[in-house]
Every structure is written in structure tokens, then in C-alpha cells.
Automatic annotation (TrEMBL):
This is N-acetylmuramoyl-L-alanine amidase. It comes from the Bacteria. It comes from Glycomyces sambucus. GO terms for biological process: peptidoglycan catabolic process. The lineage of its organism: Bacteria, Bacillati, Actinomycetota, Actinomycetes, Glycomycetales. Residues 108-256 form the N-acetylmuramoyl-L-alanine amidase domain.
Length: 504
């Protein structure tokens, strides 16, 4: 999908490039390599000798991202005051969707099927690659299920429908392979499938009626898929990050380019449906330690760096990073654990403020800087050392603090600023040079620090503030001017800096 820049706004910026690598590190971005047409994730090597000496006190900034996790528990948080309620770490109960059983849609008797005692460890999303029908009736959904079963049994020679479940374009959910529904309802065991070689004894397969190379699923279909996946995850104790596309494990176009590009959003929406709201975190400049709500603590680098967090490798989980002011370098980790960085990328000029976001909607968070001198955002679509920005957008006024978030619920992060002088958030729904904010919302008190996130799991990032004087987060579920906080959390110490992230 192309980056969401306004026409003609992509421009080189002349940013200092710096060294191509720090201490032999390779680019962090979780690129995919192809072997005989199959795509595999590639992780970065770890460098044991990364020097990150610096005594710079971080700027006041925060980044948008989705968060989820459990109530405070874990190493490093024992002495921190905390109040406020979030769901516990165990998956909350998820309502079962209405699932049409095999006898109801007229399934044929299957051949021998293996019912396994092991539970699945993932969900694979497929599309049927058939017509995008506008018949949204239950009768049509039954006919689609029968057609798939006939093809799989009579043409492919399989003992039953290959996938475990089917979702029609009308949003009807059907059991596809016999015995799949009772195993799911019990949350124990699974039926050996026939939907992806080497994954048939590990993955629940879901077919979605239609072809999604360029078109998107219908809203009813997508919503039913979210509910079905959330129910599967809750029943089997899987995280939302265990959802993948067919092409992640097989050389295939399935589930179509458009649908595959929606997988990160599907994970986010499933996590939200499972009761996972966004989570907060803090960075303690004096020790260089992150305290992540619901997860624990992790240290990266020395004291006094600038904290960031993002989904660097498209696994659906945000992990920590730091920015070193004196060499304009981002140090990023693929896990929320103490240790050295997995990747280092130099970008920006002296005095720039770092931020990150998914600028092109591909599911990867990538680096960016805001230049206070000219009030310009310089955004990159890849975590690399090219030194060149993919887009430059002027927005804000002198003294503003840069922000990024998914303000309108689409798949793109866009820019914004927080103006300390009047405690107002100015948010844009497009990365462009119009100079106009799409919304301005006053919230907080003088001295507050901005923080944004999808606090209620509805796919929209909304505003909040961290108040150092009371060590409290004040979070809103709507971007409006009501002035009322929906969530108040006491957490941290006076000099801590707020961050947010999907820590699990």
C-alpha cells in the first residue's frame, strides 16, 4: 500500500546520514526474505558491545501506539505507587459468536478425521479466491460452505473441508470441518486440518468468502472474523499476535494483498475485543530503566537517553528503544528485556526530537524526527541508515511537542502536536503540508506531559496527559473538549517520562 503522503510532498531533506551501522549491527526492520517463493521473517543479530554512554536528560515526549497487558505485576515495579483498573493478564471471557454447525448447512458425512489432543498455537487467515458476492443471506453462506466441501472432497481428494471455519461476506460464521466446533467450545484439542502443509496440526484455518487482492472484506465479514478470532484466542489461551496470513507459511497469494495488509489491524482489533486496552509505561532517566505496565522493567543503554517504543518487526507487540541525542541515533530492541539493542539507525540533526509511527500502513513502526527550529516532521518508511526522509511535513509552532497517532481509525499514523502554553492537542488525519489541524482539543494542566493511545480498544488513538506532580496518567477515550478523564492511573516517580506500548 502506498505511503499516505499528500501528492508531491515526498522530498529529500538533507538530513545527516552518519555511520551506516553502529558496531556491526544490521538494519533492525523485520524484512522478509524469499526462499522458493516463501516469505520468512528475518530478525536482527544482537551486538554484545554496543556503547551507549550519554548523560543527556530526555526531552518531554510520548508516542502513540496500541497497548495491552495485565495489571501491574513483575520485577522492578514493587515500589511504584499505582492505582486504576485494567483487565487482568488472563484473557477475559469472550462471547462466543453464532457459529452454524455442519449439519445445519447440509454438510456431507466426512471421511476419517484425526482429533488431536494438543491445542492450536496460531490462526491462519485465508480467502476463498472466489466471487465477491453481494448475496449476504444465510442461505448463500450455506451454499458457499457446501461448494467448498464438495471441491475439497471431490477435486482435492480430502476427507472433509480443509479449513476449520468459514466466514461469509454476509458475516455468517460456519463450522467447516467436522468436530471443529465442539473442540473450540471445549477449549481443548483440535481437528487435524487440510489448509496449510506443515501447519495442519498446529493452526486453526479460517476461510473468508471472496477475493481480497485489491478489495477489502465487507464490514460484516470483518467484524465476524474479529469476534471469531477473539473467541478462538480466548478459548485456547492464544495472544492476538498468534494470527497470521496463509502466505506467512506457504508460497501463495492467499489471503490477497489487501487482506494480508489488514492482519496487523486484525490483531489489534482482536486484542481489543478480548478486553485489552492500551497500557502505559514510564522511563526513568536517572537509571535508564523502562517500567512497563503489566510486564515489569527493562533497561536499555545508559542513563539519560530519550525513550521510544514501537512495533519494529511487525509481530504485533511494541518493544522499547532509545534515542541518543549526541549522535542522533535510534537504538531499538525486538523484545522488552534488558540488554543491548538489536539495531541502531542514525537519522536527524542535532536538536531534533525523535518519534515513531506506522506512516505507510504496513504494520511496521518506523523512525522519524521533529525539528523544532522549522517545526517540520521528517518521516521514514524504513528503519535503515539511508539518512533520507520519505516525507517532510511542516506543522505546529515553536515550543510544540510532536505526537503521532491513528486519530481516525484507519491503518495510518499521522502527525500532531501538543502545545504546552495552552494545553491543547492539534491533530491531523493526513501527513501533508496543509498546515491545518483536523481537530484541536484542550486537556490537562500546565506542566503536564502528553501521552496518546487506544485506551479503550476501539481502534482510535486518543489523548491523555501524565502529571509529574501527582505521578498520574489522565486518559480520555474520546478526542473532545469535555475536559474529563475517563481513566486515572497513579504510577511512577516525579521525574519519570511517559510512554505507551502494546507490551505483550
Amino acid at each position: 500500500m502506498p505511503p499516505r503522503w499528500a501528492a508531491g510532498s515526498r522530498q529529500p531533506t538533507g538530513l545527516s546520514a552518519g555511520a551506516a551501522y553502529d558496531a556491526g549491527l544490521r538494519p533492525l526492520r523485520n524484512k522478509r526474505i524469499t526462499r522458493n517463493g516463501t516469505r520468512f521473517p528475518l530478525r536482527c543479530p544482537r551486538n554484545e558491545g554496543l556503547d551507549m554512554n550519554n548523560l543527556y536528560r530526555p526531552l518531554n515526549l510520548s508516542r502513540r501506539t496500541l497497548l495491552r497487558g495485565s495489571a501491574i505485576a513483575g520485577a522492578g515495579l514493587a515500589g511504584l505507587p499505582f492505582s486504576g483498573a485494567f483487565a487482568s493478564g488472563a484473557a477475559a471471557a469472550v462471547a462466543a459468536p453464532s457459529i452454524i454447525a455442519c449439519p445445519t448447512w447440509g454438510a456431507r458425512a466426512p471421511g476419517p478425521l484425526d482429533v488431536l489432543t494438543r491445542n492450536p498455537d496460531k490462526i491462519l487467515i485465508h480467502h476463498t479466491a472466489g466471487p465477491n458476492s453481494t448475496d449476504y443471506s444465510a442461505a448463500h453462506a450455506h451454499a458457499v460452505a457446501r461448494s467448498i466441501q464438495n471441491h475439497h472432497m471431490d477435486v482435492n481428494g480430502w476427507t472433509d473441508s480443509g479449513q476449520h471455519f468459514t466466514v461469509s461476506r454476509g458475516g455468517h460464521v460456519l463450522e467447516a470441518r467436522h468436530h471443529s466446533l465442539p473442540r473450540l467450545q471445549a477449549g481443548s484439542g483440535m481437528v487435524f486440518g487440510s489448509h496449510c502443509p506443515d501447519q495442519n496440526d498446529q493452526a486453526i484455518g479460517i476461510e473468508n468468502e471472496g477475493t481480497y487482492t485489491t478489495a477489502a472484506p465487507t464490514a460484516a465479514q470483518y467484524n465476524s472474523l474479529v469476534q471469531l478470532c477473539a473467541y478462538i484466542c480466548a478459548q485456547y489461551g492464544l495472544p492476538a499476535t498468534a494470527i497470521f496470513g496463509h502466505r506467512d507459511y506457504r508460497a501463495t497469494a492467499c489471503p490477497g494483498d489487501r487482506f494480508y495488509g489488514m492482519i496487523p489491524q486484525l490483531r489489534a482489533d482482536v486484542a481489543a475485543r478480548m478486553g485489552g486496552g492500551d497500557r502505559v509505561g514510564l522511563y526513568r532517566p536517572g537509571t535508564g530503566t523502562f517500567f512497563l505496565e503489566g510486564l515489569g522493567s527493562a533497561r536499555l543503554g545508559d542513563a539519560g537517553l530519550v525513550p521510544i517504543a514501537g512495533d519494529w518487526n511487525r509481530d504485533g507487540v511494541d518493544s522499547i528503544g532509545v534515542y541518543k541525542k549526541d549522535n542522533q541515533t535510534f537504538y531499538l530492541k525486538n523484545s522488552n528485556t534488558s540488554g543491548v539493542a538489536d539495531g541502531a539507525f542514525r537519522f536527524g540533526n542535532e536538536g531534533d526530537i525523535p518519534l515513531v509511527g506506522d506512516w505507510d500502513g504496513d504494520g511496521y513502526d518506523t523512525i522519524a524526527v521533529y525539528r523544532p527550529d522549522n517545526q517540520t516532521f521528517y518521516l521514514k518508511n524504513r528503519n535503515d541508515n539511508s539518512g533520507e526522509a520519505d516525507g517532510a511535513f511542516r506543522f505546529g509552532s515553536k515550543g510544540d511537542i510532536p505526537l503521532a497517532g491513528n486519530w481516525d481509525g484507519d491503518q495510518y499514523d499521522t502527525i500532531g502536536v501538543y502545545r504546552p502554553d495552552n494545553q491543547t492537542f492539534y491533530l491531523k488525519n493526513r501527513n501533508d503540508n496543509s498546515g491545518e489541524a483536523d481537530g484541536a482539543f484542550r486537556f490537562g494542566n500546565k506542566g503536564d506531559l502528553p501521552v496518546v493511545g487506544n485506551w479503550d480498544g476501539d481502534a482510535y488513538d486518543t489523548i491523555g496527559v501524565y502529571r509529574p506532580g501527582t505521578q498520574s496518567f489522565y486518559l480520555k477515550n474520546r478526542n473532545d473538549n469535555s475536559g474529563e478523564a475517563d481513566i486515572v492511573i497513579r504510577f511512577g516517580e516525579r521525574d519519570d517520562l511517559p510512554i505507551s506500548g502494546r507490551w505483550r
